[in-house]
Amino acid sequence: SDPARALDGDPSTAWVGDAAATSWSWSASFREPVHLGLLRALWGVHTNLGVPTSYGWELVAPRAGEGACPADLQGARFEPIADATEASGPRVAPTRRSWFLHAEACALRLTVRATNFGPPVLRELTAFESARDVLEGASVDAVGAADGSDPRGAADGRYETSFCGAPGRATWSLTFRLVEPAPIDRVTMVLGADATSRPRARGFGRRYGLAAGPERWRLEASEDGVRFQTVASSPTDAQGEQLPLRRPLVELSLHTRVRALRLVMRGATDFDGRASARAFPFVREIAAYRADDDRPVLGEPWILSVNANPSAQSHRARGGELANDVYFAKFLQRRFASVMPALARDDRFSRALGPDGALLAAARTESSGEAIEAIEGDDPALGARLLAASWPRPLVVLSGANDWEFTGREGGPDPRAPSHWRWDPLRRAADGGMAALAPAVRQRVAPFVGICGGAQILALLEARGAWDGDDASEIDALVRRNDGLPIRGVGGELMRAWPGVPGPRDEIRFDAGDPLFLDLAGPRRRATTHALPEWHVDALRADAFRPSGPLERLRVVAEGRYCAPERSVADERGRRASLAGAGRGRANVVAREPASAQRCAVVPEAYRSTDDGWPVIGAQFHPEQYDFATADDGDPPESVADARLFVAAIHEQLVDAMLRLGM
User: Fold this and answer.
1) Global pTM exceeds 0.85
2) Which of 380, 453, 499, 597 has its CA 20 to 30 A from that of 397?
3) Nearest CA to 95 among 635, 520, 527?
4) pLDDT tens digits, one per residue of 107-135
């Protein structure tokens, strides 16, 4: 098989390994050194045929001081690419994969040790160049470094190494003297040892912040390496307070060549995010890029897990708000780790919660905060300003719901069932809502994903900018009970299909041609599944997505049906009265009754934005938690991985957007 078929731009052709071999390799060389930022592969015939499951990507680096690659790579030394290896992948695996790196290369090699079945099939490989960091090789001077802290760790391109300041100081600084003067227009940083949160002053809720980060900072530039001038400083929020920005992108308008760059930090936060005279700052990473380097700065994606629930309610639960924040973040860490390798190391959320929901002591590691952070939906810091200033833009994931009902009026615990709440997420953060996120969603400031209740809130935020009525009318126009009735009172008909819970599974029909479902569809163009977990009593209204409707910028790409028995008005009133003292949780909802003279309603199961900005994706089902152990009747055996493949497709959609938007 011709290796060039993997580089011809035609996914219908492929390099195929020898069927008689037990290991395989594919390689390609470059005429001159390239600075690689991203590799993307389309491989396998299908998710269970020809996909490498034990493999490694390697490269040949150019020789120091040589501006060209050798014509003959015979005997060249291939070095492994960090985070581009897999030892034992799943039996059913995605056919689209992306790996981020920052390295000079003269050649690439893929070594495959095993596949899920048959020889490996590499249909297409695309390599993307990224901008070079001019701080590579720069000398570094530090003022206020802790004993044993090497300041060069802040500019070596590795999250695990860092600069750490000494305690008991008011200021710290890092000065980078470039190998040669350069015009600089972009600087990226990762500040603090990790992200953290602390109790808010109002008595409930937690406030996002930097763990051991600078309280304030400024960037200074020098043309001669002696005299410095301030070119940027830490941003503030609308109230003039310091924005808790951990991953800033600083865009400069310098018209001179910079010989030295300095980061000056004043004050620091402790590991709970509080300003303290005894605190000291970490700088995980800092990089700078030439103004005449028009290649994008390709940074590995990270997740911002948003607890899309009223913090006043989770405050009363076991472990309080922190345990609830960790609960939702841990599922994302575990599920996305298969396509975001840094998450396998950044596992503190998984270690911080026991199987019974109790908080556990989980020490920070050198990788903590590398790829996932958590924030509460009603945190005043969460908004367009924070997201737009972050680099890379985070994948903002709105969680599923706790035990509460939508209300457009005053919220709080239900007097008849105190553990059950009513909540208006469209209120301001100061009033316990998430309205501050609406401009970010509407303007496509960052990629958004909503799961179950989070998908409903995401849709409400999308409609917010075009809605003239009050909160109650917007909620009624967009959200309803599964059976089509308005959300009133407590409880509702449960739509349930959950791993480990006996019962029939709901069929979901999806658009087999949509990128989110291509791997589920496969070559046979399957368009249905019973393998996407569901547990909800409310759903979005299908007619809200119609042209000129409040969700017209979103397109439904999967849907199901819920059928409830017909009841007379008197029966319905009696049913709701019997539920008045019950909650909305799993033990307090009414399961589906046998179908007889049923009333059916369409349930939008997945939607996506249709414009060219950052993607907005909602899923009424739960792809982030568990897989079914066996395929349902009518589903192929590989359908047990449908939820996991959907998550992998979300990641690839994020990477598509990064390339399209030049980020």
Assistant:
1) yes
2) 499
3) 520
4) 999 999 999 999 999 999 999 999 999 99
